[in-house]
Amino acid sequence: MKNKLIYLLFLSIILSGCSKKSTRIIENDSNINEKIISNISSENISDDKSSIKSNNIQKNSSKKTENKANEDQKEDLNILTDSGSYSAVLIDNSKADPRFGFIDHVKFEDGYLIFTGVLNYNENINEGSGDTVLDRGEYKFKLDDNVKLFARSGLADPMYMDQEEFLDYVNKCMGNGLEFIINVEDSLAKEIIIAS
């Protein structure tokens, strides 16, 4: 009887180690054997369940981190950081020449200027329009803490504004053909200008 018990115990350990499923050996006259085998199998099952549960938590956590990184990467794709001058014309897009850009919408949000439309880009800030035209879309410019928002015309002194005043002025000038300029240095918008 003792040998049978040892044999069954040994067999149950081998079977439970080889399979993730619970194996239960029942001997007619031996309740003790059944309890021992059942306990061994249930310990293996609970260990398997906890390891599966922790693996699922780790997988879900890494998926969330991956998704967040992908969202951040997508969001960063439209942030313009190259130094130079970005410009567009305040004109109805049906009359606009795409080479010079045009504006659909402008707003300030969370430390960014958000621009929707077509932009012209020139690496040299002092040369005006360049040869590079960015496709129609939404673009963001990270604002410098000391960004200058102003309107300039000919020899007159620049008219400096805060963000709200500047947006009001943009809306008043919409359609009149003035130039909208964003000068970027060190990845930040340093000046945003409406110029005639």
Strand-residue fraction? 25-35%
* Rounded mean pLDDT score: 76
Helix-strand string: HHEEEEEHEE
Biggest beta sheet attributes: 5 strands, mixed, barrel
Q: List low-confidence stretches.
A: 19-29, 68-74
Using only C-alpha atoms, the radius of gyration works out to 35 Å
- Binned, the helix content reads 25-40%
Q: CA-to-CA gap between the ends?
A: 105 Å
Shape: elongated
How many β-strand runs? 7
Model description:
The protein has 196 residues and is of the alpha+beta class. 38% of the residues lie in helices and 32% in strands. It is built from three helices and seven strands, in the order ααβββββαββ. It has a five-stranded mixed beta barrel. α1 runs parallel beside α2. The radius of gyration is 35 Å and the shape is elongated. The chain starts with a helix and ends with a strand. 19% of the residues are buried.
Based on the model shown, name its key terms.
alpha+beta, 7 strands, 196 residues, 5-stranded mixed barrel
Summarize the structure.
With 196 residues, the protein is an alpha+beta fold. The protein has 3 helices and 7 strands; from the N terminus they run ααβββββαββ.
Topology at a glance:
Layout: H1 2-18, H2 31-77, E1 84-89, E2 102-109, E3 112-122, E4 132-152, E5 159-160, H3 163-173, E6 179-185, E7 188-195
Parallel strand pairs: 4-7
Antiparallel strand pairs: 1-3, 1-6, 2-3, 3-4, 4-5, 6-7
